[in-house]
Specification:
Low-confidence stretches: none
Number of strands: 0
Helix content: over 70%
Distance between the termini: 72 Å
Shape: rod-shaped
Order of helices and strands: HH
Largest sheet: none
Number of helices: 2
Structural class: mainly alpha
Mean pLDDT: 86
């Protein structure tokens, strides 16, 4: 990092963050990422179930007809 970047007044507008605040921010970011990942897994599982149900329906109508 250059000296200019270190001394930039807008680097941390509210002052240097404390270790505690950084850890809290990291924990929140991790929780958010985990929640988004879980939502994606649930959507993918629902899509898989729908595809399987559609295939089962196609198979049963093909055997009936």
């Amino acid at each position: 990092m250059t000296e200019d970047a270190k001394n930039a007044p807008d680097r941390f507008p509210e002052g240097e963050p404390s270790v505690k605040n950084v850890m809290i921010a990291l924990q929140r970011a991790q929780e958010d990422a985990m929640a988004r990942a879980e939502a994606v897994r649930q959507r993918e599982a629902a899509a898989r179930r729908e595809e399987e149900a559609a295939r089962a329906e196609e198979t049963s109508s093909a055997t009936e007809g």
